Amino acid sequence: MKARPPPFDLRLESWALRDPKTANQMREIVAQVADLAGVDDEHFLPFSKELLVTIASFEGVDSKRGKALLKAESALIAAREAILALDKRDQVRLRRAFISFTISGPKRRERITICSPKSQFARKRIWTHAPDELFWAFRDLTFVGREHPKGAIGNRELQMFIELLWFAAKLYSGNLYADHKRNDGGTMIRALELLRPVLPESLLPKVLPVYTIETVIKNFKVKVKSSRVPPPFALKS
Known about the structure:
Structural class: mainly alpha
Number of strands: 0
Number of domains: 2
Radius of gyration: 24 Å
Strand content: under 5%
Largest sheet: none
Oligomer: single chain
Helix content: 55-70%
Number of helices: 9
């Protein structure tokens, strides 16, 4: 590994004050990942900063959060089913009460009469669409009740981390790839293993799914290339 200038980042400096060993380990890992990605000296410092910020943004990831999301989603589904189970008269009364409270608040319900028809229409739309939009937001996070998108890992946080890591390398003159035909799985797999000690334990599975990670990267490349990303962020073929 060639000598690199130490990456400067306020978060890394705070780690150095708390635990010099951890900070030194982080510096070595960042340099090793940069070498794997083929990042040149000119882009090393911005790449290392991007990598440190990405790592920091996943510090709080915990598998228990996923379980909590599933629990909350189940509660939302149960609430929707309970509302639909009401007879029509109770549903109408509940809808009117909801619109009334969203317009004027619980202490000023009498003011509903002075609200414009347009405002009342907006509140009716909230009643109609908000529960469904919240429901699908949960589904987007948990993948429950629908097929996983092609190439999805099933661990949303891991998929996002891989996409951000690949994009950071590509943005700063490097590249990280996965190849299930290679014994080592490719540079992305090696980079993830290097980063494992400084990532939350629940983020990376014990055995990385090389073929799936390869598909995630391929799909993300297509997504980025097809999007309207202005220079210098537009990717070259």
